[in-house]
Write a structure and sequence with these properties.
Blueprint lengths: L23 H7 L8 H32 L4 H7 L2 H6 L11 H21 L12 H9 L4 H20 L12 H51 L2 H9 L6 E14 L2 H7 L2 H21 L3 E6 L2 E6 L8 H23 L5 E15 L5 E5 L1 H11 L6 E4 H7 L3 E11 L3 E11 L2
Parallel strand pairs: 4-6
Antiparallel strand pairs: 1-3, 1-4, 2-3, 4-5, 6-8, 7-8
Length: 429
């Protein structure tokens, strides 16, 4: 999973979700102007957008109340505060000037209009309570990495609150309102302040939860990817000790190579998608067989498939497990041939003995196996016969009590000279 998947997750996106979500329109507002920023900053900008949208919406009932109560007498207040609706709404467009530009603009408008409200209506209106969310909101919009800036905003908000409490005691002289007006204004401000604090905090925690779930999803994906590249035991070792060199000497392991016969001319007739789909179908079934027998797939090289038994952890009877898999591979290819209507055959070679296994490459990790048994198994496959399983004397000796063999005879093996080889036929009756 890429880092983009850690960004804002819309309510309809896949994954684990709570039973209640914010309206879709609010999630849409939260994403305005956040594209192009890293996910961590996008979440902070989203909270800034939500706060600005809430302030814009909260302004509307106040303006309506002024109009209903005394539109002409409160005309100066309507002219002064109605622009808040637009000024707060355009906050997301300041994100283009930097990751903190929108937050600075929002806090500036917040402080200017907040002080103006205190000047117009005095402390009995309760409008100064809108300064109280400043401490929490400033951390949310600036982020913990700009603690000094958020602390400065909080300090200014505190000073503005005290200014209203002690300097703007009564409404301005050019505003003539009754005490009942101030009482209604106070009754409106308190619940709206609580709503602002709750919604902002909820959205911030919601974003944190979404980011955590995205991280969990990425972690699970990385775990699956790592375990598909490396054996589980090796992957666990690397997670515990990332810089450790993984290199093991295995006293006894059985190696199997399987190669698809006549794959090259077949691939020449097909397009790329057909080639990949064909190999995916066959090797996918091979993987299932390897898992069934508890064996470790090492790698695929073109149309060749390599499996090992007895590593990375020692197990008894790995020779038998690999032999059983070899027989299952032949049966699997017979079934595939019937399904697609043309022959699909493999040459299989096996050998057993001591090997060295380890992880190579600091960037693209690869778990591989080296040793004489690996080379001999590869020679058994390359010098083998279609739809037959070819093994050398040493492996035949270990398996002859349970399996039937057919003598092929001596063949010349590069690097080994003349070797007597056998075909594994099947289980004994």
């Amino acid at each position: 999973m890429s880092s983009d998947e850690l960004e804002l997750i819309a309510p309809g996106a896949r994954g684990r979700r709570s039973s209640w979500r914010l309206p879709v329109v609010l999630w849409w507002i939260a994403r305005i102007g956040t594209s192009g920023y890293p996910p961590r900053i996008r979440r902070r900008l989203a909270v800034t957008n939500v706060i600005s949208a809430l302030y814009s919406l909260i302004t509307i009932p106040y303006i309506l109340f002024y109009l209903v109560y005394d539109g002409w007498g409160l005309l100066p207040a309507i002219i002064a505060f109605a622009p808040q609706i637009l000024f707060y709404a355009v906050t997301p467009f300041f994100h283009r000037f930097g990751p903190s530009a929108g937050a600075i603009y929002l806090c500036t408008m917040w402080l200017i209009f907040g002080v103006a409200c205190g000047l117009f209506f005095g402390r009995d209106s309760g409008l100064q309570f809108f300064f109280l969310p400043a401490a929490a909101a400033s951390i949310l919009v600036f982020g913990a990495e700009r603690l000094a800036l958020s602390g400065l905003v909080t300090l200014i908000a505190l000073c503005a609150f005290l200014l209203t409490e002690f300097a703007f005691v009564a409404p301005a002289s050019f505003i003539h309102v009754e005490p009942v007006f101030l009482q209604v204004l106070h009754s409106m401000t308190v619940p709206l302040t609580f709503l602002l604090i709750f919604t902002t905090s909820f959205f911030a925690f919601k974003e944190a939860a979404q980011a955590e779930m995205a991280l969990e999803t990425e972690y699970r994906f990385s775990e699956r990817l790592l375990q598909n590249i490396l054996p589980r035991a090796v992957a666990d070792r690397l997670k515990d000790h990332p810089t450790q060199l993984v290199a093991d000497h295995v006293e006894s392991a059985t190696i199997l190579f399987a190669d698809i016969v006549n794959f090259t001319p077949r691939a020449a007739r097909w397009g790329p998608q057909q080639v990949v789909a064909f190999l995916s179908q066959i090797f996918g079934r091979f993987d299932a067989i390897a898992m069934k027998h508890g064996l470790e797939k090492i790698k695929t090289i073109g149309d060749a498939y390599m499996v090992a038994g007895g590593l990375p952890q020692h197990r008894e009877g790995h020779e038998e497990a690999v032999a059983l898999m070899a027989l299952d591979l032949l049966e699997c290819c017979r079934r595939i041939s019937e399904e697609i209507g043309e022959p699909v055959e493999v040459r299989i070679g096996m050998d057993t003995g001591p090997v060295v296994a380890g992880v190579i490459g600091p960037n693209k990790l690869l778990y591989d196996v080296w040793g004489d048994a690996v080379n001999t198994a590869a020679r058994m496959e390359s010098l083998g016969v279609a739809s037959r399983i070819q093994v050398a004397d040493c492996l035949k000796t270990r398996l002859e009590d349970r399996f039937e063999f057919e003598l092929r005879g001596p063949i010349e093996v590069k690097g080994k000279g003349l070797m007597r080889v056998w075909f594994l036929v099947g289980l004994k009756a």
